[in-house]
From TrEMBL:
The chain crosses the membrane at residues 6-28, 48-67, 73-95, 102-122. Keywords: Membrane, Transmembrane, Transmembrane helix. It comes from Actibacterium mucosum KCTC 23349. The keyword Hydrolase does not apply. The lineage of its organism: Bacteria, Pseudomonadati, Pseudomonadota, Alphaproteobacteria, Rhodobacterales. This is Twitching motility protein PilT. It comes from the Bacteria. InterPro entries: DUF1761.
Length: 123
């Protein structure tokens, strides 16, 4: 049976991680934005469409991890996380992002997977 509390905690935790990584807290925001070739100034209002897409992606990855947790298939969860990282890197390189921006994006993808697995380990 899926642990819905861990699923939800994983989604929320990964979303908060994104706020930390891409927000002003770590000092990566400006360099990442420049490497992504977008305006480094924060938008006047939250970018709702990209945020909704991100929550959807996080929920899908968290669901895969929750499903693998029910069968004790951690290896499958790790492969899914690696697939997300590889896709993230592929898109970033194709879009000609800087190496720094691609690394931040890939690191965030890895961090999301770790947060989601930890949610299941804790809850």
């Amino acid at each position: 049976m899926i642990n819905w509390a861990a699923f939800g905690a994983g989604v929320v935790g990964a979303f908060i991680l994104g706020y930390i990584v891409y927000g002003p807290f770590l000092g990566l925001q400006r360099r990442w934005a420049e490497g992504t070739r977008i305006n480094p100034e924060p938008p006047a209002s939250p970018p709702l469409a990209p945020m909704a897409a991100q929550i959807t992606a996080l929920a899908l990855l968290a669901l895969v991890i929750a499903m693998t947790e029910t069968t004790q298939a951690l290896n499958t969860a790790l492969v899914a996380i690696l697939a997300v990282i590889a896709q993230t890197v592929s898109v970033g390189v194709w879009a000609q992002k800087s190496r720094f921006a691609v690394t931040v994006d890939a690191g965030y993808a890895l961090g999301c997977g770790v947060v989601m697995i930890l949610a299941h380990a804790i809850l």
